Amino acid sequence: MKGQNKLFIAIIVALIVGVVIGGFVHLQYPESAKPFSDNIKLLGTVFIRLVQMIIAPLVFTTLVVGIAKMSDIKMIGRVGSKAMLWFISASLVSLFIGLVLVNWLEPGHVTKLPIQDAASADELLKSSKGFWMEDFVKHIIPKSIFEAFATNEVLQIVVFSIMFGVALANLGDEYAQPVIKLFDVIAHAILKMVGYIMWFAPLGVLGAIAAVVATNGFEIFKVYAIYLRDFFFAIAVLWLVLLLVGYFILGNRLFELLRRIKSPLLIAFSTTSSEAVFPKLVEELERFGCNNRVVSFILPLGYSFNLDGSMMYMTFASIFIAQIYGIEMSVGQQITMLLVLMLTSKGIAGVPRASLVIIVATCSMFGIPPEGIALILPIDHFCDMARSMTNVLGNALATSAVSKWEGQLDNHGGDM
What we know:
It comes from Chryseobacterium kimseyorum. The model is unreliable at 111-118 (pLDDT under 50). It is built from 22 helices and no strands. It is 79% helix and 0% strand.
């Protein structure tokens, strides 16, 4: 754990330095904030791209090996059904928490936000049009696995990998074992790369934080103080629920799990990308004691179907926009919205600013001005920090819980 503690400390230092540098530029050289931001956030871009480079081959190899090694199709079905039960339950709870708290706290009624020009939301408005069943199906089923790899479409890679893994499991050892061994070696080599790439994380964190503070300064927290306060309170409630469920299932080992994933949580928070920590999360969950077959099967599915932070944000933001415009929604309408979000949000992993796209589409369906998304765009970066970190926690808990239910969670953990 020494290396992990050093990385954690380096990320904390980078976070503080990023805020200081960004604040200094914003206050002392405001005319240079834009070019400074554009240049320094390249550090974050380098880190994110390094991680994105290995996600597709890592998902493919680990998932295929995990399923092929299971060999028992009944086990695949059993593990998959338990995972989906967790995903659906967690999604409904997350959506419901967002719905209850936004109605109770009413940030849209007490906050007097300036109505912004909808031009900043034009791109989202365009991308949300027609985002319904046809796009959903196209987003799930790959027309070319090479295109899915090239564009990092995780859900499409998952679909192909599951089918390929099941086919491999039924092929017989004589043919299957050489392929499984090859993919296993590739997966471990990629995980080795993770160790190298993660040392770029502090630079990525510094660049991402410095850029956003230099551009927006600290004023943005004052303008949107109530919205941020209420949203982070809602996130805290969701964390409390997730951790209570986690403690009920894992017992005292929950605290060991949290120690294991502290770096992935912080990286996700700083870079607003749960995708950026996927490889590191695989590694830490296996070190925690989760069976590698279960990790390689559940975690990629979780990244597509188990986005707890994003789910909670969708109901919170949608009702907030309705409150800003003075639109009253009945309990029935809000429950219908919850169910619509439950369906439309599945399989949007990999879509840029996916949560916002879904919110725009949902607002349009329920007569809420979709241009209202422009109200929350300036602070979406800060909300995205909490969403991303919560998504990572939810997927770590889901994988650990399913491993425990399957009797595949080692008590000792330890290094791989």
